[in-house]
Amino acid sequence: MKPIIIANWKMNPASLKEAKSLFSAVSKKIKKTSSEIVFCPPSAYLFLFQKKQGFKLGAQNCHWEERGAFTGEVSALQLSSLGCSYIILGHSERRKQGETSETVKNKVNSVLESGLMPVLCIGESREQRDRGEEQKVLEQQILESLEGISQNKLKTKGLCIAYEPVWAIGTGMPCDPEEAQKMMLFIKKVVSGIYPLDKIKILYGGSVNSKNAEEYIKESGYDGLLVGGSSLDPEEFSKISKLF
Ligand code: PEP
């Protein structure tokens, strides 16, 4: 199976000029790979990626309604019409700004209805891990974010779940691959109570770089990676994409 490598550019870079040069450097370098590469730039730069070959396009968030009086929002359907096929949902940087599992659930539903692949992010904070609550937190996030979403909805696309421990994001302190594997098996156990596992892909995210990327796929058994900081470095990101 092709690993899925998702580049989360977050709110970077700061200008269209920089975005153009980053895009051009990255797209030249990642030509030879058998992984599924997905770029999730800020929505303002999505147009740069349209009609380009060799990778998929994604967004970092969406609203759950298709259209209407929701100033400042963008819908899954609109993102689909721009060529997006993946949408990251419930990222911890959004949960920190008040996004709840209830809104994430509505978004997952809308992304599936629009025929796109949701990438549901879950992960515990440092404090929750120190209190030994990591499994409880993940279970709660999974069950609440998927509540009422039937197996039938997953029939065409399926669902990606990204395990992203909050303490590993952007810190340079990735989760140990053995621990990451334990968490992945736990996620599978929880999800298997709701959906057939062949509809679910589990990704790891949190300080992934070209030196540790392989471990999560080949040793821990993840189906892919969600890459933040390293996706903004063309050299580093191309090395990651060529590992598989
Ligand atoms: C992310 O933001 O999803 C992420 C994993 O970031 P980083 O790779 O920088 O830790």
TrEMBL record:
The active site is at residues 91, 164. Pathway: Carbohydrate degradation; glycolysis; D-glyceraldehyde 3-phosphate from glycerone phosphate: step 1/1; Carbohydrate biosynthesis; gluconeogenesis. It catalyses: D-glyceraldehyde 3-phosphate = dihydroxyacetone phosphate. The keyword Zinc does not apply. GO terms for cellular component: cytosol. Its EC number is 5.3.1.1. Belongs to the triosephosphate isomerase family. Homodimer. This is Triosephosphate isomerase. It comes from Candidatus Nealsonbacteria bacterium RIFOXYC1_FULL_40_7. The gene is tpiA.
